[in-house]
Amino acid sequence: EAEKQAKELAKAEEKARREAEEQAEELAKAEEKARREAEKQAKAQAKADEKARREAEKAQVSADDRSRREADAQARAEAEAIARAQAEAEEAARAQARAEARAPEERRAEERRAEERRAEERRAEERQAEERQAEERQAERGRPEVAYAEPLPGRSERLEAGAPSAQLREVGFQNMPGVSRVFVRTSVTPRFVVQDLGEDTVRIEFENTRVMRWNDTNHLDTSFFASAVAMITPSRRGTNLVVDIKLRQRVPYQQRIEGDMLAIDFERPAGAEAPAPGVEPAAPGEPSDEAAGEPAAEEPR
């Protein structure tokens, strides 16, 4: 019985020993597993910490770069503003210098224009004096030579009193091949007298013809054309319209009536260059001509 009990005790001890070993192995396994889990968590935490550090460094770098870019942009803007201010100051200085340099030229130009106006006034006065002298000479010689338009049945030596009232529409000039035309358009068929005043002026007087626009009495300077006509000067004389045609030299001329227009064609002086087919450009500020042989369209000057 004692041996039996000893065997059972030995078996129990062996079983206890095996169970203790199994428990020790399981505990070791659990510890190893816990150690591995702890290492894994530590690695994960290390990775997370490294990622967070890199992101923080990246954010810091981005913030520093943005700050640097903003500082650079501000510096460039300030430099550009300074450069613009300097350029504007230099341009203002150059403009001031140009203005100061132009001032004497402008004064001289104004003096030249004033001298030209005075010269024009003197020429106008001389023309008026010449016209008065021509009229006086013509009066001394007797009755002036008068050329009447044809055909106008019943035309007497002078225009009839009580002729129908007319209005001036247009006074113009056309330089055409072979002739230079001075034309006057009125609201009705023109009634007029043509007089030769001296050697260089032809006067046309229209009876009962009103001038409705003040600038229709401006003179036409045709001296720059290759023509015998140098100046055309309309003016009022009581209820009549007077058109004086000043010539460079005396040349033959012909007159004709075309509807409501009187046209006087002066032959071209010998040696004058004939214009190309068409109409030469009008003087600055004067109405331009239309096709050769046709009067310019009615338009206020």
Task: Describe the structure using short key phrases.
single chain, 301 residues, alpha+beta, six-stranded antiparallel sheet, five-stranded mixed sheet, 1 helix, 11 strands, 22% strand, rod-shaped, disordered C terminus
Provide structural commentary.
The chain is α+β, with helices and mostly antiparallel strands. Helices cover 47% and strands 22% of the residues. The chain has 1 helix and 11 strands. It has one helix at 2-141; strands spanning 146-147, 166-176, 179-186, 192-197, 201-206, 209-210, 220-221, 229-237, 240-247, 253-258, 261-267. The strands form 2 sheets. It has a 6-stranded antiparallel beta sheet. The protein has a 5-stranded mixed beta sheet with strand order 6-2-3-11-10, with no helix packed on it. The relative contact order is 0.09.
List strands and helices in order, with pairings.
Elements: H1 2-141, E1 146-147, E2 166-176, E3 179-186, E4 192-197, E5 201-206, E6 209-210, E7 220-221, E8 229-237, E9 240-247, E10 253-258, E11 261-267
Parallel strand pairs: 2-6
Antiparallel strand pairs: 1-4, 2-3, 3-11, 4-5, 5-9, 7-8, 8-9, 10-11
